[in-house]
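Task card 7
Instruction: Convert sequence to structure tokens.
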Amino acid sequence: MFNFNSKLKSVFLLTLILPFAFSCNETEVIKSNELVITDEVRSQFSSLGFDVSDLTTTNSRDLLNPAAEGNKFLLEGDLVVSSADLQNMLNGEFVKGQPIVEQYRTNNLVSQGRTINVIGYTGNNSNGLDSKMRTALQWAVDNFNAININLNFTLTFGTNYTPYDIVVYRVSGGGGGSAGFPSGGAPYKFVQIQSGTSNFDTNVVEHVITHEIGHSVGLRHTDYFNRSISCGSGGNEGSGGVGAIHIPGTPTSADLNSIMLACFSSSENGEFGSFDVVALEYLY
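Output:
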């Protein structure tokens, strides 16, 4: 179920929101399959500009991406980072920048002029998109193709997702989604949309999918500097120096119309805010 308030936003989470929370002290070690969250790992993510207050690992069976089982970090609600990606960032393989406030990108971007082929998975199992999600995915792809960027998105539906750049599929959960960052000039491939998202109207589902594809092409949360703006709680996600880069031309105050806010409400219209367009057109 959602921890929902009509005046606030519902958090993008891979797991259900419970009416209580657990916290760990700094010396505690948390194990999940191959990954171990230690003080050093927390420090590494913090140095890259990530919020580690909800750092955990994925540990659910993924029929479409078995390699992702239990070997990815999950943080800031909907961001998936592999241990290899973490090491690449720590090794300085990405361009460094100065984080300021509002409209952020990662150091990982998609190659200019690229055609991004998207597939909505329709398999006859729990991972197949329902009809509302399929419509919303079409609208989300249309969002990107409607703006003046040097990327072209194509969309098809089916089950042979291997050759595609992005596969959008359904997983169990109360609502929201998850994705990761680009790597090697390619977008993050596996975009998960929770089954409970369809309890909202199609515009909200469009919002969630557009948001997650935004991460896949390199956008961070707009309220990176103060998550309480959209989530009702939470603070600065950090400003380590290489994990988030301010995008010129975007405001230095909260942009409540951004599709990249950390949390969403039931009244979203599914469209880019004006500064989302500015950000994407600057990058691409």
